[in-house]
Design a protein that fits this description.
Structural class: alpha/beta
Number of domains: 1
Oligomer: single chain
CATH architecture: 3-Layer(aba) Sandwich
CATH superfamily: P-loop containing nucleotide triphosphate hydrolases
Radius of gyration: 16 Å
Shape: globular
CATH topology: Rossmann fold
Helix content: 40-55%
């Protein structure tokens, strides 16, 4: 299984990728998560200060280097990648996707989700203070470590920048894969179990 989950910031890509990964025993490749893991390195600090810490996309050459190290022959789930047309074309020279699942969510719902979203630094699992809280306050159910609220979820100017980048860079990727017949749209509002069920229908057809 080789699929990509794409959609606007806060669409739930990480949550759905985690569930599908568990069901199908394939790894998740999330550029954002890998960048956050690099934050204590010289390169990681530079990338945060210049790009993702301000809501901007990290240059494709860095993203592709991360991707190449993580791809496996048995399959994978790309979390929020490709982010732009250039990356989609670059990726085609490396491997071929079975499907690209576009998670369609309104901006109003996304803004509600982003405020109060918590994440585990260790496993990357995402929680929400109201919608899907951890069993113990701000502690990951699995790793038992403190959860944190991402900077790019808290600051309004960064959130707006992330949406601007998404509209300008990532929305064309949706059209690109639609023309290729790889795009499958799933409505990302409602119960998580129903959304996963709809994704499974797409995967099982492949």
């Amino acid at each position: 299984m080789k699929i990509s989950l794409i959609g606007p910031p806060g669409a739930g890509k990480g949550t759905y990728a985690a569930e599908l990964s568990k069901r199908h025993k394939v790894p998740i490749i999330a550029i954002g998560r890998e960048l956050r893991r690099m934050v204590n390195t010289k390169l990681g600090k530079m990338l945060k200060e210049k790009y993702w810490g301000k809501g901007k996309l990290v240059p494709s050459k860095y993203a592709m280097n991360i991707l190449k190290r993580k791809i496996t022959k048995k399959g994978y789930i790309l979390d929020g990648f490709p982010r732009e047309i250039t990356e989609a074309k670059m990726f085609e020279k490396i491997d071929k996707l079975d499907a690209v699942i576009f998670i369609d969510v309104s901006q109003k719902i996304i803004l509600q989700r982003l405020h109060g979203r918590l994440q585990c630094k260790k496993c990357g699992r995402i929680y929400h203070i109201k919608n899907s809280p951890p069993k113990k306050d701000k502690i990951c159910d699995k790793c038992k470590v403190n959860l944190y609220e991402r900077t790019d979820d808290k600051e309004e100017n960064i959130i707006k920048e992330r949406f601007r980048v998404y509209r300008e860079e990532t929305e064309p990727v949706i059209k690109y894969y639609k023309k290729k017949g790889l795009l499958k749209k799933v409505r990302g509002e409602g119960k998580i179990s129903e959304i996963i069920k709809n994704m499974e229908k797409i995967i099982l057809r492949k």
